[in-house]
Structures
1.
Amino acid sequence: MNEVKIGLEVHVQLVNLRTKLFCSCSSDYRGKPPNVNVCPVCTGLPGSMPSLNKKAVEEALKIAILLNAQPYPVSYFFRKSYFYPDLPKNFQITQYDKAGGYPLAHDGSLKLTSGKVVRIERIHLEEDPGRIVYEGSRATARYSLIDYNRSGIALVEIVTAPDMSSAEEARDFVERLTQGLEDIGMNIKEFEGALRVDVNVSYAGGERVEIKNITGASSVEKAVIYEVFRQKTLYEKGIRVERETRAWDEKRRITISSRSKEFEEEYRYMPEPDLPPIVISESLIERIKDEIKGSYEQRYESLLKDGINEELARKISSNRELYRIYELISSEDSSLKDVAASVLANELSYLMKRDSIERLPDDVSGLVKILMNYDRLPDHSTVVEHLRKWIRGEEVVIKTAVPEAEDLKKEIEEIVRENYSRIKDLEYNKKFEYLMGILIRKYGKERKKALVSALAEILSEMK
Amino acid sequence: MNLKGRSFLTILRDVERGSISPDDVNEYYYRNALALNNTINAYITLIKPQQSSSDGPLRGIGIAVKDNISTRGIRTTCASRMLENYVPPYDATAVERLKNNGGSILGKTNMDEFAMGSSGENSAFGPTRNPINTDYVPGGSSSGSAAAVAAEMAPIALGSDTGGSIRAPASFTGTVGFKPSYGAVSRYGLIAYANSLEVIGVISKTVKDAELLFKMIAGRDLRDSTSFNVDLTSRDVGRPRILVLRSFVRMADERVQKVFYDSISKLERAGFIFDYLDEFREIDYVLSSYYTIACAEASTNLSRYDGIRYGPRLDVAGNWRSYIEAARGFFGSEVKARIMMGTFILSAGYYETYYLKALQIRKEIRAEFERIMKGYDAVYIPTMPVLPWKIGEGIRDPKMAYAADVLTVLPNLTGSPAISIPVGKSGEFFVGGQFIGLRGDDMKIISIASEAENALEVVRHE
């Protein structure tokens, strides 16, 4: 049987963490000058010791629960030894499922678009190595440069069973996973290289070939297509496929042999003596479950019921804090729902990420003011600027030209006329309320008195 | 100013009273260190004292620090050519705490390279010599710290103890060596040899001196997840109940045994109560499980020395592999031997046979130790099975050198506090005896050792 078996090892950076896995260095390494976010721990200086970022365990648990995996109550960190210049200690702190070790979670699953279920064997936490950078191309560079800003970033590794049988399925797995991560508030798409995949491919029961370090779902698909083609060609010529590790060359769209794997690599795993075991209690699991799964779906459903479109609903429900604010606003003034959804999903969510804001103020009066005046704010950056003031607790002042009384009346008449067909059959009070809603949004609460008298005048004239 | 024989505590008291100044104290030890270092070789780096302006309890007095404990801005070599020019950008937590108490650093002391050795001979900077007789070893690996205190080259010193590295040199130089409970002092900044066994401790003239410094450096540190807040309240034990492990005492040679049993008679007269236990079930595995765990951990700890981020700058043709291979030639032979043993132990197929088995044995040793300690305040055994040997003898016979650790490794396997004090003399040399307690009972062990020190009066300090 000429069947194709594909298994994936997906590395996901925990992009919501502000610090690294074992030290308090900032995890924001992209676009930074080399070797600025480093300390004795993440550069492996003599005498330094790791200490675990507890939030990383919670973030990793979210992924485990998303993938229906079972967390182990106690799991351990191990040292995986190999020499490589981007690995400052020449061992990586990771987890291991042999030699008395347990990973963070085991036996999960992910459903593909087709409905096929891919089994997840295990999920574990580990540290990212640094980056080797070449001036120009690798072949022509005179030096290898090493940037340790990435060293120590928290990674979750997800290992699947070899359950996929085509390049499309491999791509779909990565896409489903990315979507799932976004749904629980991990927007890895916005971070280059936050998801990296090692693909294992075997053809017709032949040796397993590993293709390392592929970024992005479509590259995974291309790499698998090429690799299946390569193995199939060899098979048909009667040449044995060697067990080896290959690299994906994005430019030439081929895989290239990087090292043969005749023997199991010798990683000399041993328990990390400087770190205590990770202990996961039932109550922690329950808390995390509550934080992501059930409540995500509930949030999403109730937003749809409110008439919010799917895209906005997804964005808001993936962040508990945004959803909380949405609920506050809609209970204060339900006419603001639509504009609130849009501002929360776009400008506010952007601002929270940009400034690493986790908690928003309970007093939303400033936000209400912004939403009411939204149409009159010239551009997104002005909206963001006002949002920032609100979050900082500063007074939100929106300056707009206030029309003269006579002009105001004309404008209001215009608005009433535009909406008249929709309200003409309503009783007076409803009519009045509906129009006031529109007017207040346009001119602001401060002008309420003037608006009420102007509107009353117009409506009585129209009778 | 002559402070010969003065304990650190009485010096601090006189400084407090104003009868001597901190600068006089620093001057005294610095002068001695300068004068004697050519012969004793206790210091790798000696620092000229600055005028003291500190009003913390240590008043700016310089303390000797073993050269595997990181000191910001002061090179920290581990007595290895690999780190000959390595200057840490940060202070170890223990050093930071000394500085917070007004302490300063007098110098960095010689040691066995990467703390691997029991004699002080395995140093890239040459062997440390025993101040009692410079043809003899001072014991190791904290050889320079012990020799400095014994030779009036430092008032007090920090050392580290992985398998006896504080107590062995204390025993050979007639000083007090205190190894706290595992985790009682933060290891952050201690250049790791065997993480699960070692701890920073004190070498001093008296038990009270050790207690003083220990209290300043002890306690939980967020940067060391294995550290904890050890109980630091003074404990009066009354008449201590002591258990002597005969099977360990029998490992010592006759001269050591004689002095040791003499000390028991004296202590009994002072009110100590002794019982004897003939068998300790796991005694045959104590040394082998210790070396298996230590070498395994060492082999990964020492992987980072590849010359890329710090260490020797080399001009090597070829790729990074050739560079790393060349750089790792800067390790001394004992270090290389232990890395190779550790690498072998962790290799596929041997991991279960050796490493996992050693961890299992350590568990059993811990359980056995807790069982025999029921009803007792401490265990009492000699510190070293032999008297100091001549420089060079240990290197000719490495198995003898390893066997010298047989009495000191037990507390490292059990995480116990252990303190070695001089308990008598044999010829020109001192014999050390150690009190060992349950993990966390540091103050109890200190209190017992202090009573023993007063009762035995082996070395008189003012």
2.
Amino acid sequence: MSEYRLLSTLDPVTLVEGVARVVIVTNSDGSDVRALYQIMEFRGFEKLSVGRHVEEMPRIVSAICGFCSWSHHLVSGKVVDAVFGRKPPVRAELTRRLVNYIQILDSHLLHFAFIGLPDLALWGESQRDIVKLLPRSPEVASTALKTRTVLKKLEKKLVGKIQHGPLVVPGGVARGLTRDDLDELDKALKEISSHVDVLYKYFDEKIIRSGHFKKLLESEEFTMRALSMGLVRNNLLEHYDGVLRVIDSKGRVLHEVTNPAQYTDIVGEALFDWNYSTLPYYKPAGLKLFSEGSTLVVGPLARFNVIDKVPGERANWEYKRLIEYSGGKPLSNVLLYHWARLVEIIHSIEALTDLSEDSRLLEGDTVDLTNSPSPRGVGVIEAPRGILLHDYSVKDDFTVTRARIISPTTFNNMAMNTNLTRVSGRLVREVKSSSKPSPETVSIIESIIRSYDPCNSCATHCMRIGDVEITTSFSIVVVNEDGEVLWRG
Amino acid sequence: MLKLAVLPGAICGGCDVALASLGERLADLLRYYEIVYWPTVVDRKLTDFLKLSSIDVLVHMGGISTEEEAKLAREVSSRARVKVSLGSCSVYGGIPGLNSLYKPIEVYEAIASQVDVRSKNSDLELPRPIEYSAYTDIVEPDVLAPGCPPGSIVLDQLFDLLLKYAETGRLEPRILLLGDPESLCNKCPRNPKTTKITMPGIRRIFEVKLDDNKCFLEQGVLCMGPATRAICDHSCIKANYPCTGCGGPIEWGVDSGLSHMSSVASALMVDREKSVLEAGLARELDKIRDVTGIFYRYTLRKSLTYKLRKLRVGE
């Protein structure tokens, strides 16, 4: 590999959470092209966590992300349980599980309504967002907005503060739910369910059944054949607590881990001095940038790849339909993410409906106050975007001495770069022939990114990502496949 | 149509979601406003946005962590008639402001020291990170909308204010701090009937089962309610969790942490001061192992501690 020249930037990418850009670099004859997805913020939660009372961490780290604040809150709670050696009573466990489903439902609906649906429904247009969709398909767009109102009201009732709110205390929850809460849940689920039916019908008619979508699914540009990692419980879809399973691109099971602290056997993390982002990779394969064999993918598609079945009748029917439609597992086309999210929305509604009838949510203790402390705790959870890991160490006074956090977007960083690199060749050809990329190619790049639903805020708990120098159009960066910068100019 | 832009700095997205959660009310705003930029929600490119010579309302979210964020925030703010600072990161620095006391390289090492592979083979210089700051450190906004994210009172006020501005073209000619001008404690549903709150000692959250009716301070649990501006409807307290102070100080410019400490000092074992003596009080106060994270969680960047440190290191 020789010199790489910065070719183009998409700065910033719109309709993603947080601020990001894509930088594409190429060698002089355009035969080798690399794409770098960069997140452009800098907040540093690993550092600011040090010195904190560990029991306060669930309230602090939830501010890593406003889209999946409950995921960070809940996984942090699991770490705190491990540190104090507590086992939450059934009531508390179910309450946390319930809130996790609400998080999945909320985040997926938000993404589907504001990002996924407009992106696919307005395919080929320069502006693909809810504002454009509103006059075009008023019923669908306003239904999407209505889901926000219902969910907001429900969350307010159940957990008080909608983002960065309180639920977890060491060994339990701050408040047990009441009959009144569950009645509200039941009512809200019915309403959300009818809204989701409208959205699903539209998606089915306009997207799934369209020849265009089928054609896009056959495109290699949207394909990512990497390793899938996700939680499972008895081979069923699981979002809160289960076995961490890794499968390869042919569907073979490579790992099953019950103790989350063993994640270090599977996950390696690399940091290059040309980039502030860490890049997690599949440790047994070693680090190879832009290589599918070294890439771990997390999120709805990975979850669907590692399981056999989705609990709940309708959701499982939809799950099977998706797999059949796309030609079987493992699912590898990233545009299927939107559909998979919709199936998980249906699953969450079914799971929440079951929970709303579970009397164990109303009886018994809310917290375990016994202590059997440990200097380290590790927790794993399925956030809406995939596996989320928190790992803290503490001193005798229960203040944090070290925090390591790997978010789903950080996990998928490598996959996105690999995916984008594949489509960048086309972009280079277009730039060479007509000095700028076609709107369609730009759309494809944006759609790949939006499919992953990257949460740049999550990924930037660590550091500002990206080299400021490559924002200028004359910067040149040379990287080899091990991520070393060979030359710059 | 008026032009409205939402500009993120270093964000978590919570403020985006809070705004999006206006739900159908967003559609009401769209009757008056064209959203010319809001990268999370609206598919319009920055380059097109920057071609606009003026905008009517700018809502800034998040802190300022990079040169680019600062430059963009200043540039766009200079073109805006009304500047709204939304959320505690933008107004006070927020939780990421807890890193204010560290050098950027120390923050970097906290992550770098934990990875498996660290490549130093290039001579590529990383950009010099700028010191983290609040939006209000670099621009003087017209409206301050605190909260992490802003609570219902603030969001309702902001929504009304935007509608009113669209209808009348007028805004209060001073910095407007949203939320009610009183402490959250004032209307707390758990406010003790007695005139004086008494803390029986200091209890960390892991030491107690939280009583779901009693004032947290009277349970010995630290609650920031007495010195936090009323920006919400006591949502955390209603969920049986003490206030962590995300609304910031009651008045703009006040050091939040000092007010919180003062409120604890005035309540701690006031009924037994004579028997426990100074040593007894100190023993209780020593249970707070993290003064910064408890009392300055959202406002360290604006604190006297931060300013003193800056003076000490001569920056």
